Amino acid sequence: MITSTVDVTQELAAFLRTRRERLDPRDFGLPARRHARRTPGLRREEVAELAGVSVDYIVRLEQARGPRPSADVVEALARALRLAPNERAYLFGLAQQRPRDAGKLATTAAPSLARLVADLSPLPAMLMNHRYDILAWNGEMARLLLDFDTLPPSQRNAMWLCLMHPETREFYVDRERVVREGVAHLRAAWAAHPEDQALTHLIAECITRDEQFARLWNDRDVKVNGRGHKVMRHPEAGVIAMRFETLTPLQDPDQLLVIYRAADEESQSALDRLCTR
User: Fold this and answer.
1) What is the torsion angle, in degrees rounded to the nearest 10, for the CA atoms of residue 61, residue 62, residue 63 and residue 67?
2) What is residue 79's three-state secondary structure?
3) d(CA 66, CA 81)
């Protein structure tokens, strides 16, 4: 029965029961017993042993009487019940816990996403992770912003380039707003991924080397900006106004697909000239 609100304790109990009952004891190499099982799946005792918790704890969880399980217990239950990735994420959500590997960061583009970035031509497109590392890009984006192939991987970061790279430091007409939005995104990412040491080091470097970043970071603005516009001073094409959309793939939620479109006819003409050279 669906109600207007979710009782997470009851749903957690029901989810654990249904997943336990779906398991085949033979898949776990459990010894055959003389008496037939009265209920399908694994017994609570068996799940408790596999997860390294007490039987009473499993009973209380399945009867919606137990305390909220810790992240370590949720991970142990997910392994014991052999949950698929989506089921594991659902269990963590019900327990109101965060997976230990939630801060694990993609450093390369998923092949299907890299192909998608290429297929989006002639629209400039690129793929980034949550700390703004640029993982994939198409030719149009390289002509619009920068030839990323000429950079070492450690410098292929949108915020680092905006602040540190001599060719892009004054690239944006409204640099204050662009940096402010980037800082607000990084602060949100920093809170969501506290174990990401590379992100922490990036923020520390930006605070140390750029006074504007340090000032904006202390404002503690938090915002994930999924769409907007940027006006760019391109060294070859002149001023180009672009609108952008940022999409998040369901299978790779820590990757950001950024797609640019010209904001007006003049900018579209400038972009066409730039990309056909």
Assistant:
1) 10
2) helix
3) 18
User: Rounded to an integer, what distance in angstroms lies between the CA atom of residue 162 and that of residue 170?
Assistant: 8
Rounded Cα distance between 28 and 46, Å, is 10
Distance CA 151, CA 165 (A): 10
Could you give the domains of the chain? 8-98 (1.10.260.40), 111-276 (3.30.450.180)
How far does Cα 216 stand from its chain's mean position?
23
Burial of 192 (0-12, 13-18, 19+ CB in 10 A): middle
pLDDT tens digits, one per residue of 27-42: 887 765 545 556 678 9
Amino acid at 256: L
Q: Which tens digit of pLDDT belongs to each residue from 237-257? A: 999 999 999 999 987 878 899
DSSP 8-state assignment for residue 264: S
Spatial separation of the C-alpha atoms in residues 105 and 102, rounded to whole Å: 8
